[in-house]
Request: fold
Amino acid sequence: MDKNELKQIVIKEVDKLKEDITGLGDDIYKHPETGYREFRTTGLLADRLEALGLKVQRDIAYTGCKAVTEKMKKGPTIAVLGELDSLLCSAHPDCNPENGYMHACGHNIQVSVMYGVAAAMVQSGVLDQLDGNVEFMAVPAEEYIELDYRSTLKKEGKIKYFAGKAEAISRGIFDDVDMAIMAHNYPISEQGYKCSPASVWNGFIGKQVRFVGKQAHAGGAPWDGINALNMANLAMTGMHFQRETFHDDDKVRIHGIITKGGEVVNSVPDDVEMELTVRARNINALKDANEKVNRAIKGAAVTIGGSVVIEDTPGQMPLKYNKGLAKAYGENARMFYEEKEILPYLDTTASTDMGDVSLLMPVLHSLSSGITGGLHSKDYRIVDKEDAYITPVKIFCCMLIDLLWDQAQEAKTILQDFKPELTKAQYLEMMDSMEKTILFDSKTRL
Reply:
């Protein structure tokens, strides 16, 4: 058989699996679990993958699982990824009423796509005809939420990083992987598109800031106080004045909220807390923007006369898509969609921890459709299961055949042309260097 015949075999197998794939997605949708809590979903996926005859490693990054064939072949290894975790979206009508958990970003779709690729490739026998290996990963904690919970896990030594793929990298889960691919649904159908072979995303650093002042009666003796809320407001003003110093191409974004503004209105606030995210398109711009934000925070403390505690945490790194993988995806997408329905690539200033993986190996973070409403919103809906679940499985299966056919020449060419931005050791060193606590007292610094 030639590879086109293999593609037709696997496409027919995907059609047989439609109800199995969408049924799995519906099940996960009804039982949402947030990051590092995906115990049920991990077990469900691990059982399904084991039933295919794959060897499954569970709890790869506290939660999550990885499936491989019993007999590994010579040749490149490609990982097909899916993300496990849900969001908090209590305004959505389908959310869990007890905790507000909700799959409003479509991770139930993408992890079911991962399973669908595994099932179709294994059950059709096509996987055995290829010159290389395909692994299947269900990875946790892509959404950067519930940081108090993750801080507790970290203090207990259960995780090292808040983001699931960073945790998986640190545990060696990607050590035997040469390239990684995944599909993420996105509301592109409103512009007439069905899929996109590639996307670029910002990276970010997470920040928690505590401004410490001095209490006093706000009406009777405000001169005796040091107003921490004024410090926070002045810090935000300083950040705004930095905007003209950011290069347009770096796509810097700074956004935050005050999570604690004081205790009572007639006392000068002495303890104010803020949470911030600093985003940028590349690592150098990210570090530069973060340093400017820290200067603004320290300057506010000096002006008002208080002190601050800044806790920086590495979030997710900028994502770079691989052109060779995007080309392979696009060629196979044309089997199912017209050219005008394929968005060449999406440029977004949002973030994903697939960016961390892209620093180390060729990565494809493709986009599928079949949804309406904004991601992370109460309006999110799945409206076309064929576009959301089934066609992405077919595209990936056909793409894997191209990459690993004929001694995996196409995959080998991609690997030869790829230059990693960092080694694993350099990546972990960078991540650890971004994590720091800064104590700044204006009285001792002047």
Remarks:
- The CA atoms of residues 182 and 199 lie 11 Å apart.
- The chain has a mean pLDDT of 96.
- The two ends are 77 Å apart (CA to CA).
